[in-house]
UniProtKB/TrEMBL annotation:
Superkingdom in the source lineage: Bacteria
Protein name in UniProt: Carbohydrate ABC transporter membrane protein 1 (CUT1 family)
Organism of origin: Cereibacter azotoformans
PROSITE patterns registered for this protein in UniProt: ABC_TM1
CC per GO annotation: plasma membrane
Length: 288
């Protein structure tokens, strides 16, 4: 069989990647483009009308409230998951005897479907029959309206997501810990570094790229957080847990204001993109 020329190989490669290109266009670019079209006032038959929906966003207090809730939830949950995930990874890396068993056990929360996690939260945090208030009562403390409190429901939702996804962050950080060069620790110990000094000045800087990788993965999910909120609070009480995703869903499916809902989602997509680009650029600066 005669060997292929470079031109034939290039042509074969183009045909091989064609299905992936078509799928990307069909599943990503077309929906995004159509959402932008709807956000500009198009309705599927008429041309786009302009920036009216975006002008409405600027003057809409509900949009700014949803944006604030989205950013607060993002910041609180991301910090909790990175801090607790790092602490859990350090513990697993230190105690080698139980590492394999515990690593297998902690996989379960983020392997659960969000519907299951939401239903577990509803049962455990039920004001009358839930285990959480039963524990408080056993300790002589008053009952707490976990998901019905306008003041605390957002924090409770952040804690639910933290319970589910902290093990995921821990596994990423654990992989980073096991990849750190031993010679750096040997040099640091010779210089007298130990304990917290060793962690702050050696381990944490070396874990920078790993932590930022985890931050990128979690920020995408946290900014478009929807399922657990919808299952547990549906954005309530009031608008206490109404994120941009929840607001867009209600606008599009409850009020059938698809164009305005699309403009909300385009803003959210830009925020997600900005977050990813920020963490990615930061990761390049701390790479070693």
């Amino acid at each position: 069989m005669p060997p292929r020329s470079p031109g034939q190989s290039a042509m074969s490669a183009r045909w091989m990647i064609l299905p992936a290109v078509v799928l990307t266009l069909a599943m990503v670019i077309f929906p995004l483009g159509f959402a932008i079209y709807l956000s500009l006032g198009g309705n599927g038959t008429l041309p786009a009308l302009g920036l009216g929906h975006y002008s409405r966003l600027v003057a809409d207090p509900a949009f700014w409230s949803a944006l604030r809730v989205t950013l607060v939830l993002f910041a609180v949950a991301l910090v909790l998951q990175l801090v607790l995930g790092t602490a859990l990874a350090l513990a697993l890396n230190r105690y080698n005897v139980v590492r394999g068993l515990v690593r297998t056990a902690i996989l379960s929360p983020f392997m659960l479907p969000p519907v299951v996690v939401g239903m577990i939260a509803i049962v455990v945090l039920d004001p009358g029959l839930g285990a959480a208030n039963w524990i408080l009562e056993s300790l002589g403390l008053p009952h707490f309206l976990w998901l019905a409190s306008p003041r605390w429901s957002l924090l409770v939702v952040a804690l639910i997501d933290t319970w589910q996804w902290t093990p995921f962050v821990a596994l990423i950080v654990l992989g980073g810990l096991q990849a750190l060069p031993a010679r750096v620790y040997e040099a640091a110990e010779i210089d007298g570094a130990k304990g917290w000094s060793l962690f702050w000045h050696v381990t944490l800087p070396l874990l920078g790229p790993t932590l930022l990788t985890a931050a990128v993965l979690r920020s995408v999910d946290l900014l478009r957080f929807f399922d657990i909120i919808y299952i547990t609070t549906q954005g309530g009480p009031g608008n206490a847990t109404t994120t941009l995703n929840i607001q867009a869903y209600k606008l599009g499916f409850d009020f059938m204001d698809v164009g305005y809902a699309s403009s909300v989602m385009i803003v959210l997509a830009l925020i997600v993109l900005g977050s990813v680009l920020f963490f990615a650029s930061l990761r390049k600066k701390v790479s070693w």
